[in-house]
Every structure is written in structure tokens, then in C-alpha cells.
């Protein structure tokens, strides 16, 4: 429940400021489809923030800190325009993922702080997200360009795809070694990284970029 309610908060927060680009990228969302107004979405967003903080406080100080951190990340990303800069956007994505993960870890473990293994997992996750999360921006390039955002696929359309082709296999090797997956699982993980990277490089249309991003999200989960 904690993860889902915070995910809802993050999605509503993001969508309150992206309706103009969602007309192109995601017209089925509530705002561009006319099922909700921007004012209604903003009021719902702040209501959800209070709900998330109260729910987190019930789980303890560590979870409350994670929830507060996520809320701050959303404010910087959405209200202060960090989403318009490729580096700041990646930093916000790292903050978002880490606060989600740390809060979930604390709830599942019933501990007040993360252990060494969890800390290593969080740090490696943060580095992975920071260096590859622009995978989500390829399919949204048209809408992002309309809104004036400078994402990596817009700034370097060819270089960003070549980067994905190389970065995902490299991360597969690094994570396989870090978690000592063994030759069979390590090879499978490397093949997945090569496949997803090649999908980004070979296919350049929105439909393929959407399916590639889905594969990007699934492939690290095998660890």
C-alpha cells in the first residue's frame, strides 16, 4: 500500500504540469483527455502528499523521512522546473527511486535503518538510474520538444542511442559481478542488456521506444 499510494502521489504531481505535452505523448491521461482539470489535479496532489506523510509516520521516523524526501524531489522536479534540464531531471529520478526503495525496504524489514546489503543495493540502483534513466525520454521526445525540455534524446539524438547500446551491457557486467550471479545467470543478464540496448539503437519510432522502455524496466529485476 505504501509504495502504491506514493506512486499515485508522484504520478499526479508530475501530470499536473505536463498536460500540454501529454496531449501528444499520453493523450489517454486524465488531464489531456478532459476527465480532470488542472486545478482538481493540484488539489488532489496536495491531499495525497498529506496522506502519504501520515501513512509514513505510522511506520516510523525512517519511513517518514523517505516520504518527505520523495515529496521534496517531486516539488523540485515539477514545481521548480528541474525536469527541463537533463542532469537535474536525472538527479530527481535518482532521488525518487531511492526514496521509494528505502521506504519499502524499511517497511519490509521492520527496521529503523537499512543494512549493508540494502545500502549497496540502493547505491548501485542510484548510479544505474542516474546513468541510464533517460531511457524513458526517447518515446516522449516529441512532447518534450514542444514543452521546451532538453532531454538527452533531444540534445544528442544519435549519441544517446549509441550510449544506450553500450551502457546497458556494461551495467549488466558490473551488476553481475557485484552480486556474484555466476556464469549462467551473468551471461543471461548480459544478453538481456545487449538486447535492450540494441532495441534502442536499431528502432527509432515511438512504438518501439515504448516497448524498449518496458524491457529496460523489466531487465534489472532479474537480479
TrEMBL record:
It is found in: Membrane. Its main location: membrane. InterPro entries: Prenyltransferase_related, UbiA_prenyltransferase, UbiA_sf. Keywords: Membrane, Transmembrane, Transmembrane helix. Pfam families: UbiA (PF01040). One of its GO terms (molecular function) is transferase activity, transferring alkyl or aryl (other than methyl) groups. It is a multi-pass membrane protein. One of its GO terms (cellular component) is membrane. The chain crosses the membrane at residues 46-67, 170-196. This is Uncharacterized protein.
Amino acid at each position: 500500500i505504501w509504495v502504491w499510494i506514493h506512486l499515485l502521489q508522484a504520478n499526479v504531481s508530475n501530470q499536473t504540469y505536463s498536460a500540454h505535452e501529454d496531449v501528444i505523448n499520453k493523450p489517454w491521461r486524465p488531464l489531456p483527455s478532459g476527465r480532470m482539470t488542472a486545478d482538481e489535479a493540484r488539489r488532489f496532489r496536495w491531499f495525497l502528499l498529506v496522506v502519504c506523510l501520515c501513512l509514513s509516520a505510522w511506520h516510523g521516523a525512517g519511513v517518514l523521512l523517505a516520504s518527505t524526501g520523495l515529496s521534496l524531489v517531486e516539488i523540485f522536479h515539477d514545481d521548480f522546473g528541474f525536469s527541463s534540464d537533463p542532469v537535474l531531471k536525472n538527479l530527481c529520478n535518482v532521488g525518487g527511486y531511492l526514496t521509494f526503495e528505502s521506504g519499502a525496504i524499511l517497511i519490509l524489514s521492520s527496521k529503523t535503518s537499512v543494512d549493508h546489503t540494502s545500502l549497496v543495493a540502493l547505491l548501485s540502483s542510484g548510479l544505474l538510474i542516474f546513468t541510464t534513466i533517460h531511457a524513458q525520454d526517447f518515446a516522449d521526445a516529441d512532447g518534450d520538444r514542444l514543452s521546451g525540455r532538453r532531454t538527452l534524446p533531444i540534445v544528442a539524438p544519435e549519441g544517446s542511442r549509441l550510449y544506450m547500446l553500450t551502457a546497458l551491457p556494461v551495467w549488466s557486467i558490473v551488476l553481475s559481478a557485484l552480486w556474484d550471479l555466476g556464469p549462467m545467470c551473468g551471461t543471461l543478464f548480459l544478453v538481456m542488456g545487449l538486447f535492450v540496448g540494441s532495441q534502442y539503437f536499431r528502432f527509432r519510432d515511438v512504438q518501439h521506444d515504448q516497448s524498449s522502455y518496458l524491457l529496460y524496466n523489466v531487465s534489472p529485476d532479474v537480479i
